[in-house]
Fold this sequence. Notes:
Elements: H1 11-50, H2 57-76, H3 81-91, H4 105-125, H5 128-150, H6 155-200, E1 204-210, E2 215-222, H7 236-246, E3 248-249, E4 252-253, H8 254-258, E5 264-270, E6 273-282, E7 288-297, H9 299-319, H10 325-338, E8 344-348, H11 349-361, E9 366-372, E10 377-381, H12 382-407, E11 416-424, E12 428-432, H13 439-448, H14 450-459, E13 469-473
Parallel strand pairs: 9-11
Antiparallel strand pairs: 1-2, 1-7, 3-4, 5-6, 6-7, 8-10, 11-12, 12-13
Helix pairs in contact: 1-2, 1-3, 1-4, 2-3, 3-4, 3-5, 5-6, 9-10, 10-12, 12-13, 12-14
Transmembrane segments: 29-46, 58-75, 158-175
Protein name: Transmembrane protein
Keywords: Membrane, Transmembrane, Transmembrane helix
Amino acid sequence: MNNFTLKFNNPELELQYQEEKIQKIRKRVFYLFMALGLILNISKVILDIVEFKPFTKYINYTLIGIIIVLVPVSIKWPIHIRYTLMVANISTALLQMNFTDTTSPQMYYSYGSNFTQFQTCAYFVSDFLDSVVQVICHTLIKSSITIYQTESVDPQDILMSVGAAIIISMVIYISDSHSRKEFLQNVCENIWCQQLPEIIKKPYFQITYNKNLLQYNVLSWNEVERFPSYCDQMCQGCNVRSFLRMYKSDDKELGYQLQELITGTINVHNGKYKFKIRIINIGVDYTHKIIILDNTLTQNTDLTLMMSIKKSMSFYIKQSSNKSCQVFFNWGMMSLLLINDFTIQEIQLYKLIKKLNAIYQKQKQFDFFVKGDQTIVFTGYINLIRIYMIQVYQILTQIYEHQEKKRKRHSENKPIPIFLSIYKETDTICIQLPPTLNYLLFICKYTKNIFISQIEQTILAGPIQNDLKINFNTCVPYKKI
């Protein structure tokens, strides 16, 4: 920000500030200023006509004309309200010519004070440079009219006018500077909220305590569904408040604990569920808190995770024939061993899929077909992609077997055809799943798969949508440890 003009060096930021100020206050003040000015000038013209004062009314005619021009311009180009407001405020200085020698001193003082108040309001909703231009114009016009009508120069009046102009310019400078700094702070807070998921890269939620309502308000969140006790039938705020009520730390509700100034990692529990969360206090008075779900789980949670994996493996083996039992067992063991293996190497996706197709064709129950670019090669986490594709194939076979049983075609002993296609987009390598696939059933099994939930965000550019398209991320910046 320029320290003299108080303009932002970034033109986009300056435009954003102007638009925000127009919407918040400047537009309202301008139209109220115009409406009141039109009413007062028309009423003055009517009174002059009734009282036969043909000379003073021309100033009011001029001001009415200025209003008629400025209002349509402001409606058509709202961004220029700052200039139309400046012109309108400067033109109010001409009203000094409406007063004559017959005007009583008290009435003259009262009118002058009212005009000054209106003009000051326009100063403070204008930018600093615009306000300085208005102050200088008002000072010059006021002094010129005074000298012209009195036919004399009062040094004391001139000094007071200059001193008042300097002081009010200093106050406006400070006020506009604070206004712009507050705008910058709001922009930084918005950017901070947008960047939090990229910075933290863990499930979290940001809250603040409302003392009037005696409840926590949720400001932002990321992957809050990974917190225990999450219910998709409730809103995010209700889920967070439920979490704070259900879980305890040091035999106290987590919600009560957070009202104290605590920070760092703490243990929380609810019955057999035990895990750690990290608390960060932010803000001047530490009323905002960020609660991060720690990856370090307790033994009970690890045991639950292992039991879920073993249960999934047992299910897959039971679904397979005895002949292929060893293959699926090996796949399960490989998935367990390599779930945290982030080895990076070149991947020939077509070749990988052909190998999986050959294994399933030996079962004579499914017949996988793949088409697309056979030359596609990209760099990625090879072992994680292998695990992911194995799980996707398992889900596909389960769903198609279920669909064929419903159609009563399984008795024909013909292999079930499943078609896949691979191709390359801008920054991703895509696998198109069969369009005949039951989307709801696939997503249900897909989201519940424990292996996929662990590695999906690492290897995919985005979650699977209704188009049933898998987008592999090809931008791997480094080898993860």
